[in-house]
Each structure stands twice: as structure tokens, then as C-alpha cells.
């Protein structure tokens, strides 16, 4: 199953980079609010990871992995402006799963595909503790936002909108 390959790649990357992290096993869950409760932290400390399709012009489409705090939503207008694009919207599930190399609900805030550009909101990298599903629905990981920024090397830009209603 591809998600276990992605999980192993993540763990190898973190170990090789000497990141201090903690693994957390829990019931299989991918919804941010629910899995945050299972892990025992506020949703604001979760990394919500969304694969987007950004159409720069008629011929150029980019795929972006947007990472925002778990209690916020992705501001599509901010992403569109960031890429000087005509359109920004959610990717279809098949493309998202292929590029993220994980099933929905277990997408990492890391990109292991050169066609998936990583953008994280400043609030994500500022977190003392950042939680996310580790490319598996039954296992999560906690690390610092600073270590995340150092290892994942996201483009950091304000892309989080207000909390969903």
C-alpha cells in the first residue's frame, strides 16, 4: 500500500535529519477535529493538508500542497494571488492521492513529488507542537513547527483563512 511507503520515507527523513518527534497510535481517523481530539490537542495545533490545482494560465497548471492550522481553512484567493494565477481550487481525489502519495485524511505536510509544490502558512511553522497523520489513518506524529520548516522547506506565505463556519 503506497501510504506505508510514504510513512517509511517520512520516518527515514526525520531520523536522518535528527528531528525530535513523537509517534501517536490511535483509532483510524482522518478528519482534523476528530483526530485532534483522539490525539489530545486543540485543532489549532494540527497541520491541515490540502492538495490544490492552480491554473496560472490556459496552458499552465500547478499542483500545490497547502498546509494551514487545523482550525482554519485554506484561503483560495490568497493562493491564487500568491501564484499570480487565474484560478485556485481543490484537486480531484485521484490526483491528490497520486501526488501526495497518501489517502485522503492522511496527507503529510511534506511533498515527496517534484510536481507538488509545498506552501505552509506562517502559523504552522510557528507552532511549538505540530500534529499530523503520518501518511496513515491510525498513526500520527508530533514535531515542532521549526523542525518542520527546517526539514520540509515549505514556501511560507499567509494562506489560511478564517475558521470554517
List the helices and strands and how they pair.
Blueprint: H1 2-16, E1 22-25, H2 32-39, E2 47-55, E3 61-69, E4 73-74, H3 76-82, E5 87-90, H4 93-100, E6 116-120, H5 122-125, E7 130-133, E8 139-143, H6 145-152, E9 155-156, E10 160-161
Parallel strand pairs: 3-6, 6-9
Antiparallel strand pairs: 1-8, 2-3, 2-5, 4-10, 7-8
Structure description:
- With 165 residues, the protein is α+β, with helices and mostly antiparallel strands.
- Strands 5-2-3-6-9 form a five-stranded mixed β-sheet. It has a three-stranded antiparallel β-sheet with strand order 1-8-7.
- The protein is globular and about 45 Å long.
- The N and C termini lie far apart (35 Å).
- The model has no long low-confidence stretch (mean pLDDT 95).
State the secondary-structure class.
Answer: alpha+beta
Radius of gyration from the CA trace? 15 Å
Query: Percent of residues in beta strands?
Result: 25-35%
Describe the main β-sheet briefly.
5 strands, mixed
Return residue spans where pLDDT drops below 50 for at least 5 consecutive residues.
none
Q: Determine the mean pLDDT.
A: 95
Label the overall shape: globular
Number of strands: 10
Name the assembly state. Answer: single chain
How far apart the termini lie comes to: 35 Å
Task: Sketch the topology as an H/E string, one letter per element.
Answer: HEHEEEHEHEHEEHEE
Helix content: 25-40%
How large is the count of helical segments? 6
Strand order of the largest sheet: 5-2-3-6-9
Amino acid at each position: 500500500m503506497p501510504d506505508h511507503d510514504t510513512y517509511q520515507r517520512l520516518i527515514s527523513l526525520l531520523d536522518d535529519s535528527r528531528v525530535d518527534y513523537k509517534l501517536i497510535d490511535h483509532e483510524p481517523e482522518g478528519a482534523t477535529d476528530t483526530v485532534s481530539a483522539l490525539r489530545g490537542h486543540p485543532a489549532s495545533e494540527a497541520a491541515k493538508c490540502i492538495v490544490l490545482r492552480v491554473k496560472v494560465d490556459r496552458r499552465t497548471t500547478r499542483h500545490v500542497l497547502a498546509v494551514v492550522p487545523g482550525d482554519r481553512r485554506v484561503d483560495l484567493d490568497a493562493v491564487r494571488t500568491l501564484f499570480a494565477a487565474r484560478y485556485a481550487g481543490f484537486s480531484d481525489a485521484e490526483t491528490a492521492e497520486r501526488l501526495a502519495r497518501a489517502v485522503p485524511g492522511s496527507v503529510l505536510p511534506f511533498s515527496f513529488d517534484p510536481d507538488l509544490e509545498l506552501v505552509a502558512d506562517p502559523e504552522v511553522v510557528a507552532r511549538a507542537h505540530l500534529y499530523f497523520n503520518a501518511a496513515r489513518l491510525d498513526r500520527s506524529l508530533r514535531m515542532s513547527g521549526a523542525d518542520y520548516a527546517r526539514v520540509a522547506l515549505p514556501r511560507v506565505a499567509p494562506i489560511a483563512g478564517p475558521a470554517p463556519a
